Amino acid sequence: MSHHRRQRREHIKTPRQRLELSKNQNVPARDTWNMELLLLNGGAIDFYDPWQLSRGFRNDPFECVPGTNDGVQAVAFEYLTSYLFPSGDAISSAYGTSNWWRKLVVAMAYSAEVTHAVTCVLAATHTMVVTDSSPNGFKVLSPGILYHRGQAIRKLRLHLQQPNAVADDCAILTILFLGIFDKGVGDDYAATIHWRQLGQMVTARGGPQNITSELGLRDILVTFQQLSSATTENVSIPSSSIEPMVIRPQLYECSTSDGWRSQPVSFRDMFLHGSMCKTSMDVVLKVAQEERLLPNEKRRQQATERLLNKAPDLFVPQKASLLAKLVSLALLRYRVNAHTRVRHFVCPYEQAAWTLSEVLPQVAPPPSGVERDTLLWVWLVAVDAWSVSTTLKASLTTIGSRLFIQMAEKFPEIRYWEEQDFTKMGLKFFWYKQAPRWLAREWEVVKNSW
User: Fold this and answer.
1) Per-residue pLDDT at 249 exceeds 50
2) What is the pTM of this model?
3) Hey, which residues does 134 pair with through a beta bridge?
4) Is residue 166 part of a domain?
5) Is 239 exposed, middle or buried (0-12, 13-18, 19+ CB in 10 A)?
């Protein structure tokens, strides 16, 4: 037995010790055993998801938010810090925006109603992932989740009934997350009411552009507005083919110092052919630089620029060609895909995955050339967006499997692909380390069930 494996075995407890460990650390004994299984396998299991095992073991390190060490709230806070923080950092780094998820902790420390509203959303997120619920609503809602929703509503009402009460930052954030919760459980009527109240509150403050606060409310509102615009409404679908390109942007003026020659060759060719917009090209340059300098760093440095200083088409350029829009959506999803395995219907950037899944099957790919390769890469990113880790191994959802089959119908060449073929495709664009093996494995599963 190697010294490395012997070291791992020294950490394994007896059943009695395991039980005591779970009591002392608030970790179920079953989950502690799962951790030991991972150690025995040398940590080599693909896409091990610590959140699925610890159930709220890691929580508020500074104890600035009351209650984050208990039950439902501990699980919710861990999802915030362990999954939304890194994915938000990834988007912030590429697009030059601020990661408002980190500022949300400050609001939770200020306000009990915000804490309850955020808790019910993120705890329901955990329920959806571990029970594999449908996108139209949760199968199971624990009493603890409903309790936090009720507390958020009750405390918000008490807050607004006070003399001279105003729609302050905490009230707006509470309404926002109550609407998100209602939308997530499939109650569109209640969500519409909350969105209407949210609009009235923001209008009373003079709109997002006039909101200033230490809680980052303006960033939160503008981010949601930007993400909600990343829908099929902004992605026009041609009748037959992705060609010809509608817009040919001017050639990108850059030198070797800004990373132009070090970026993936296919992205560079795409822009020189006039098939990409400058907004997406800027993101490609930032991502290429980060992956070259910091290949193993999971958390990216938080950007400080304000969203309102950016163009209206921050995520998806509205005036670009169809392929440029699809690439923009794929870049957004790639940043999230590479930083978290929790990519169910609860990801804050899920709209990009939905849009890609709806639009791609309606697009006829070009017969050859860099545009065809680019569209193929976009397809693979879309498929990868529908993987979810609910056990020690990740698996594709039904949507992801169906998308893989539709992709093979439009790109017959992938029917005989193996892992090295997925790797070669990634070298032309972007791939995180595990992507080729994961996609090759899932493709074999899909082919066998086709």
Assistant:
1) no
2) 0.64
3) 137
4) yes
5) exposed
C-alpha–C-alpha distance, residues 205 and 170, integer Å: 13
Whether the Cβ atoms of residue 211 and residue 152 lie closer than 8 Å to each other: no
- pLDDT tens digits, 86-143: 777 777 766 766 677 777 777 887 888 888 898 888 888 777 666 655 444 455 577 8
Q: How confident is the model at residue 21 (pLDDT cuts 50, 70, 90)?
A: very low
d(CA 235, CA 320): 9
Chosen domain end from 209, 229, 249: 229
pLDDT band at 46 (very low <50, low <70, confident <90, very high): very low
Please report whether residue 4 resides in a domain. Answer: no
Residue with tokens 């073991």: 57
**Is the Cβ–Cβ distance between 263 and 269 less than 8 Å?**
no
- Quote the longest CA-to-CA distance of the chain: 72
358 and 441 inside one domain: yes
The structure tokens listed for 274 are 């006039």
Q: Is the separation of the CB atoms in 354 and 61 below 8 Å?
A: no
The reply to whether 309 and 220 lie within a common domain is: no
Are 199 and 328 found together in one domain?
no
Average pLDDT, the chain: 66
Q: Are 389 and 53 in contact (CB under 8 A)?
A: no
C-beta of residue 234 within 8 angstroms of C-beta of residue 318: yes
Contacts of 106 (CB under 8 A, 6+ apart): 214, 215, 216
Q: Are 350 and 228 in contact (CB under 8 A)?
A: no
pLDDT band at 28 (very low <50, low <70, confident <90, very high): very low
Residue 402: what pLDDT?
87
Alpha helices (H) in 161-264, listed in sequence order: 169-184, 188-204, 217-228
Residues in Cβ contact with 269 at an 8 Å cutoff, skipping those fewer than 6 apart: 370
Do the domain assignments include residue 183?
Answer: yes
Structural domain of 208: 71-229
What is residue 346's predicted lDDT score, i.e. its pLDDT?
53
pLDDT in the model for residue 10: 40
Q: Are residues 106 and 217 in the same domain?
A: yes
Quote the distance between the C-alpha of residue 284 and its chain's center.
Answer: 18
pLDDT value for 416: 85
In a domain, 41, yes or no: no
> Same domain for 189 and 309?
no
- Report phi then psi at 47, rounded to 5: 60, 40
User: In terms of domains, do 75 and 223 share one?
Assistant: yes
- pLDDT at residue 112, rounded to an integer: 86
C-alpha distances in Å from residue 271, one per residue of 13, 203, 231, 332, 379: 56, 40, 23, 18, 19
